[in-house]
Design brief:
By secondary structure, this protein is mainly α. The chain has a two-stranded antiparallel ribbon. Strand 1 and strand 2 form a beta hairpin.
């Protein structure tokens, strides 16, 4: 199968957004978690590092999933590969 220029653009954009979102996931999971130990104040009776690790990262993960789904839906429509909804 011969790939068209539209297919190449689609996959290039797909790989780029996936790489950027994986980088964001890595930073939130490992970098922020690592440096959160240095945050020594309490927040609602718990160390702030606990809140960063347990709550903040989950919020960022949900935002990453939401953004990826929205971006890919737009990209699918732009390149004519969107799923057709049947009633």
């Amino acid at each position: 199968m011969q790939l068209t220029e539209s297919h190449r653009q689609y996959w290039r954009k797909n790989v780029n957004i996936t790489a950027w979102l994986l980088l964001a996931w890595f930073v939130v999971t490992y970098v922020v978690g690592f440096y959160a130990r240095d945050l020594s104040f309490t927040f609602f009776g718990w160390p702030f590092s606990f809140w960063v690790a347990s709550q903040g990262s989950l919020i960022v993960y949900v935002v990453i999933i939401w953004f990826y789904a929205r971006y890919m839906n737009q990209l699918d429509e732009e390149h004519g590969v969107a799923e057709v909804e049947e009633d």
